[in-house]
Amino acid sequence: MPLNWYPHIVLQNPPDVHPYRSLQQYGRPPQILTRNRDTHSKYLKQKLQEAWKEADNQEVVYHATKKGIYLEFQGEPGFDLITKSLEDMRSKKIRLLNIREETKTKLDTTTGTEEEEKTTYATVYVEKDKIESFFNKIEQYATEIDSRSNKPKNQKLINSISEIKAAIELRPFWQDTKQLIPGREKEWCEVWLSTDNDAEIEVFENLLSENHIQYKEGTIKFPERAVKVIKANADDLNKLVALSDAIAEFRTAKSTARFWTELPNRQQAEWVENLLSRLQIKTDITTSICVLDTGINNRHPLLSPVLKDDDCQTVISDWGSHDHNKHGTLMAGIVTYGDLEQSLESKGTIEINHSLESVKILPPPPETNSPDIWGHITAQGISLAEIQEPDKYRIICMAVSAEDTRDRGRPTSWSGAIDQLCAGVENDERRIIILSAGNHKDTHLINNYPDEQLTDSIHDPGQAWNAITVGAYTELDRIDAPDLSGYAVIAPRQGLSPFTTTSFTWERKKWPVKPDVVMEGGNLAKDDTNFVTEADELSILSTHYKPTEAHFQPFNMTSAAAAQIAWMAAQIADRYPEYWPETIRGLIIHSAEWTDMLIQQFRSSDVKGGNEQLLSACGYGVPDIRRALYSASNSLTLIAQNELQPFYKNENNNLTMKDLHLYDLPWPVEVLQELPDETEVSMRITLSYFIEPGPGEIGWKDRYRYPSHSLRFDIKSPTENRDDFLKRINLASREEGEESPGTASASDHWELGVKLRNRGSIHSDIWHGTASELANSNIIAVFPRTGWWKERAYLEKWDKQTRYSLIVSIRTPEETVDIYTTVANKIGISTPIEITT
């Protein structure tokens, strides 16, 4: 019996809203060294006096007229530093600027083994009229007792400090690899200012001009931070520390890399003519794909029907909007047609339901690889497209990334800007942004596949939380070219592409699952001497940027993979224009599955541990366009799009959690109960939302975290009732003094589990169980976790709402079972509309 296909069902009824209090305790208790109170207080007073004097001397040398000084606080090696107590958020005259950790290897004399020992440093700005507050804290520690704890006042803070120094040179501010600190030669650097105030940014720009320090136009702003790119050496940076009150961090500026290949071209003009004769372009197009790249040649006959001259733009007019080196036009062929080769070979009508936009963000030679504020340039490019066509449902695709991979998951000014753009921080306009993961640094030296891919990190800005970051796998394993006789493919069919990068080297518990998904990125071949080469048949087909020379060109790497996901997103947006960007992003990831080969390559015998490796290599797997677009009679997808307020100020004027949303889903209980008891079924849940970034500090210890908030989901276990489920997950649902009901969670049913799925700002997991168990698992809760909206109360964003999309799918193995119609009838859809796919 063939499957019937239907539109997904969007739930119209709002969820039940309950007041929420979290059961979770965030983080472990701080590890603080026990100190001799008298000795330690005297020592720190002396160090503070010396630091103050040294900072004063520096001002005399540089003739500075600053309002304050910079201090560096050092924690005890192997212990914590209580950074949250090092600033005064009310007056803002004492500001925590950055937090960094340095790791050294230490020999354990007892066991004879080497261990890593971390030391935490914090750089703090103190206005001169506030320096006494630190002396007072030390004096209170030495002489007073806290009546609540019966311990010395400020004990945790003072005992956690091992050293205080004046921060009078660039090292305490350098938040990048030590080896990248500039020497005598001027290099492009990012300066992170401790303010987002326009007047103070202008003061800093004037300071740069007065000291003949070159800087790039444009500024990226984050809460309490602004980023400028300057060309400076070590002396310049030291001078800025001495002269400015606004320095928070220094980092090396990023250079861009190109993603193109030099492959043979094939002139196939007759294919173009045939395809154009079968092309059917939608008359009232509302969806577009905006490609940020090297420009696109819209004179290519396959692109001109969908890309108008007015929609070819550039961030710098001197660059021109043309494609100066093929990459943008290669992207265009895929984002327009998806599988161009399939479109050319088919005999039927090819429908195009979206238009194309091009914004050139990469300069032509000789300006290639110029470091810049790439987040600012990206925002400029998107703004140009939005001004030109403000009413389009826009998919933004960018396969441009930094050359180096040193960030290893840490947010940067570029990835932070991407997250801001997705979340609509400036104008409340949410956006879908699709990024390539970046490519292996030297494909001609791949002789240790796939291990080399596991040590080559995803490139900046691919670590952006809110974007869809696309890696690559491959289906291409056949070599037909006579000149490649004797060559063998490097990657097996449906295995990881040798071009891709991964997040294996990241601190996985801290950063999101990246890549989010993988798509076809091509393969490589090698001979018996390990010589590696590309081949036409191991790449996909796209459009050549000089159609007078060739109409088609092979295309591969993660750029090609990202372009395919952009095409897929456009199909969903056109089919469901009412879906939010959060929903389209969620459906792409919700539809993804790991291939058997990817599982074989990266899942160990320890399934949970192996799943973590799988996520780091290929995210949630390969998306399926049909699952993303449609439900089937035996595979139902429900979607809820709602807003939740995570935090509020209670009657005691304290910030706390606010709302929990509870969904009692219209489950096909009768159909599930009629199936044999042993019938295995599955349910997938995906929760997608956008966070607002706050990337001012490295480390994000305590309240200094990157995300504005987090959301989580949980489900009633088969043996629980509704009230016990609520009491298990929500303190606010219990009476005063009431204990947990002690009911079991559904943890044994999940494929990933909470530790793996609760990373980043999209959470997806698959529930496995019997049909009878699923029949009793129809209640889902969505609730908040902490973030800087709550922890930085003085920024007054604690009352903001967040949008989210909750996607729930049920899948049964029996094609004869119709769960879709049952649910549709329950919510008032009497005659479901079938779709021909």
Q: What characteristics describe this protein?
A:
837 residues, alpha+beta, eight-stranded mixed β-sheet, five-stranded mixed β-sheet, 25% strand, globular
Short description:
By secondary structure, the protein is α+β, with helices and mostly antiparallel strands.
Write a structural description.
The protein has 22 helices and 41 strands. By secondary structure, it is α+β, with helices and mostly antiparallel strands. Strands 17, 18, 20, 21, 23, 24, 26 and 27 form an eight-stranded mixed sheet that branches. The protein has a five-stranded mixed sheet with strand order 2-33-41-37-39. Strands 10, 11, 12, 13 and 14 form a five-stranded antiparallel sheet that branches. A hairpin with a 2-residue loop joins strand 12 and strand 13 (225-232). It starts with a strand and ends in an 11-residue tail after the last helix.
